[in-house]
């Protein structure tokens, strides 16, 4: 194998080994290359404490325990570690035990699940809600449960893998429109007019932090009778919109979105997923969505904590106000360094480095050693010419933490990019 | 192996992965997208073709390939090595 760094996980999908227990022989060779091992050493680094904005990790870079400013965890509002949320989860644990010990349809549904689903539906302004044990399971399950062979699924090309996997499992015809391009969406809809069709977008796109162009997309979709919109608000629920309901609320288009999905692991600080829509389709979905009816129900401990998280995040706007204040300050400082932040419009801020994987990993190691936990994001997760760091902002970040992190980014990333002539002075 | 034979391998994999196509109507100067392929179909066609031709080109080097003919040219570079 020539230059190992030219290859990526995208290149070893097929396996010609005779035994299914043997990975491809060239994969093994590739993984043992020292330059590839440097890249993989960033994966699965151990956090030794809660995902607060200052935490502790056991670094794979040098084997040291290290206090770090944490710009990685998607604990956007700090609810995972909020004292009231922790207290509620402890009470849930005492009352219900650790797990639900049953699938939802038979014995896994507790009063807690029903109440939380009701509150989420009310929050999202929809008739009903179905809960899932994981966010990925929610997207896979909703798409797989609603779409059939012969149906058409038209997704933004930057949609999450869980949505794609749901489409593959459903056997629906899958088409991808150019990112945030309503004209291309229109072309695909015109070609498939008359077929049962679902258009899928994300409120905030997870690798770029930009928003769906929902007003233009709705305008196009409305030309086609019975075509519905599914929005994935994983990175926008509790944060966008006047009351935190998400990007659909932000654009005042909630009534145009038939199905609203969200995760419970990001701003909510727990784990799980939910899908809100009209009561009739939610009832139907419960019968056909495998990650719902063939999986254990969400842990009552988590649901007890989530119930409190929803209450804390929606009783006033203080947490999201703080998040936007922090995001605005941080972006302004990064802009001042002339870094390429792409088209971000949210608390997800990419710092796009370019095509050099080597530079990306060197910068990541330098930042970590200096006390900043900011992981590299490489191809195929992002385009090969736009390798990057992806910042998750948090309402919990203090000015001191942000300034310390910015100092490290200036010193280890911006300065080096300026020296290499990749950004202006 | 000639370029024409490589084009035939790619065409066969396109036919295996896309519906309602006739081999005679696949023009090497066009993109697979012109025949209704989505990004998952394209990955499948490219991977299956490389597997059949016993070559391996990093996905990062195929980003600029637009047409079926350009893909065959890329494959020929590797076959020639």
Characterise this structure:
The complex is a heterodimer of chains A (about 425) and B (about 80). Chain A has about 425 residues and is an alpha/beta fold. Chain A has 16 helices and 14 strands. The longest helix of chain A has 21 residues, at about 400-420. The two termini of chain A are about 40 Å apart. Chain B is globular, with a radius of gyration of 12 Å. Chain B is built from 3 helices and no strands. In chain B, helix 1 (about 5-15) packs across helix 2 (about 40-55) and helix 1 packs across helix 3 (about 70-80). Chain B has helices at about 5-15, 40-55, 70-80. The mean pLDDT of chain B is about 90. The chains are: A alpha/beta (about 425), B mainly alpha (about 80).
Poorly predicted segments of chain A: none
Oligomer class: heterodimer
Radius of gyration of chain A from CA coordinates: 22 Å
SSE pattern of chain A: HHEEEHHHEHEHEHEHEHEEHHHHEHEEEH
What would the principal axes of the Cα set say about the shape of chain B?
Answer: globular
The number of helical segments of chain A is 16
Main-sheet strand order of chain A equals: 4-10-9-8-7-5-6
Number of strands of chain A: 14
Strand percentage of chain B lies at under 5%
Q: Determine Rg of chain B (CA atoms, Å).
A: 12 Å
- Count up the helices of chain B: 3
Q: Please name the fourth-level CATH homologous superfamily of chain B.
A: ACP-like
Uncertain stretches of 5 or more adjacent residues of chain B: none
**End-to-end separation of chain A:** 39 Å
- Please count the beta strands of chain B (DSSP E, at least 2 residues each): 0
Distance between the termini of chain B: 12 Å
According to CATH, the fold-level topology of chain B is Non-ribosomal Peptide Synthetase Peptidyl Carrier Protein, Chain A
- Largest sheet properties of chain A: 7 strands, mixed
Q: How much helix, percentage-wise, in residues of chain B? A: 40-55%
């Amino acid at each position: 194998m020539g230059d190992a760094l030219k290859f990526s996980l995208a290149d070893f999908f097929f396996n010609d080994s005779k035994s299914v227990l043997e990975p491809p022989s060239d994969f093994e060779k590739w993984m043992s290359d020292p330059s590839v091992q440097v890249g993989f050493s960033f994966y699965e680094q151990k956090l030794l404490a809660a995902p607060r904005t200052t935490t502790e990790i056991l670094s794979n870079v040098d084997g040291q325990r290290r206090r770090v400013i944490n710009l990685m965890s998607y604990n956007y509002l700090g609810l995972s570690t909020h004292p009231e949320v922790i207290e509620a989860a402890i009470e849930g644990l005492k009352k219900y035990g650790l797990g639900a010990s049953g699938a939802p349809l038979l014995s896994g549904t507790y009063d807690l699940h029903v109440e939380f689903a009701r509150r989420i539906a009310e929050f999202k302004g929809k008739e009903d809600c179905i809960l899932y044990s994981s966010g990925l399971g929610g997207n896979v399950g909703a798409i797989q449960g609603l779409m059939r062979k012969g149906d058409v699924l038209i997704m933004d090309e930057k949609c999450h893998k869980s949505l794609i996997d749901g489409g593959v499992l459903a056997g629906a015809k899958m088409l991808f429109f150019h990112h945030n391009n309503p004209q291309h969406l229109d072309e695909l809809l015109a070609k498939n007019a008359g077929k049962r069709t679902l258009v899928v977008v994300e409120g905030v796109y997870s690798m770029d932090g930009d928003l769906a162009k929902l007003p233009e997309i709705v305008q196009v979709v409305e030309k086609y009778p019975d075509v519905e919109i599914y929005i994935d608000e994983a990175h926008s629920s509790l944060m966008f919109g006047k009351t935190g309901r998400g990007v659909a609320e932000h654009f005042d288009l909630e009534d145009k979105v038939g199905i609203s999905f969200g995760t419970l692991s990001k701003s909510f600080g727990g784990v799980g997923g939910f899908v809100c829509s009209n009561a009739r389709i939610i009832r139907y979905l419960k019968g056909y969505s495998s990650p719902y009816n063939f999986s254990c129900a969400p842990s009552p401990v988590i649901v007890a904590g989530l119930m409190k998280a929803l209450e804390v995040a929606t009783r006033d706007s203080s947490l999201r106000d703080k998040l936007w204040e922090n995001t605005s300050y941080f972006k302004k400082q990064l802009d001042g360094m002339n870094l390429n932040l792409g088209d971000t419009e949210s608390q997800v801020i990419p710092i796009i480095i370019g095509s050099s994987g080597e530079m990306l990993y060197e910068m990541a190691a330098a930042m970590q050693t200096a006390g900043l936990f900011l992981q590299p994001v490489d191809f195929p997760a992002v385009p090969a010419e736009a390798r990057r760091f992806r910042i998750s902002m948090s309402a919990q970040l203090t000015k001191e933490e942000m300034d310390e992190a910015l100092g490290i980014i200036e010193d280890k990333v911006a300065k080096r990019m300026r020296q290499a002539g990749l950004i202006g002075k | 192996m000639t370029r024409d034979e490589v084009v035939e391998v790619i065409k066969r994999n396109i036919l295996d992965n896309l519906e309602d196509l006739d081999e005679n109507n696949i023009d090497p100067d066009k993109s697979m997208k012109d025949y209704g392929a989505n990004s998952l179909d394209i990955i499948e066609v490219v991977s299956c073709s490389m597997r059949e031709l016993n070559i391996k080109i990093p996905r990062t080097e195929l980003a600029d390939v637009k047409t079926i003919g350009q893909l065959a040219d890329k494959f020929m570079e590797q076959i020639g090595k």
